[in-house]
Predict the structure.
Amino acid sequence: MSAKWQKQAKATEKPSGTKTPAIGVQPPIYGDQKAAWRISKIQMTAPYGWHVMTAQEVAQVKQKLETFEKSTWKELFVDNKHRNHRISAADLKCPIARKWMKDNMPDQDYLWTLRLSGAERIWGILSQDAYQIVFWDPDNLIWEVPRN
C-alpha cells in the first residue's frame, strides 16, 4: 500500500497512565463508623420476640452487642461476611419473617443478620448509620440451613 492509504491514529489527549476503580469509594454503610443500635423495631411477639428472653439471654446479647460496638460496619459485614451478612427480604426461608417484612417494612429490600453464637442470630435493618434490631432468632430459623 502506498503511504497515502495507511491510516494512523491520532491521539487528541495523552493518557494519564493511572487507573481509577469503577467504584471510587465504598458505600457509607461499610464505612469506618463504629456499630450502633436502635431498638424501636424490636418484635415482642412469637416466634422471634424478645419477650421470651431470660435475664441471662438478655445479658449475653447485650455483651455481644457491646463487643460489636468496638467494630466498624466494614469489619462486621465485609471482613466477617461469612458470619454476618444481608439476605433479600423476599428470599427469606421463614414465611413468618417474610410476611412481617412485607407487611411492616415493604420499602426494605434486605435484612441483615449478626451471628451472636452458634445458631443464635439477631436480624435487623441498616438505616441511618445504625442497625435497627428487629428479630432475635436463637435457633436460626429465619434462614435455617439443613444439616447433612
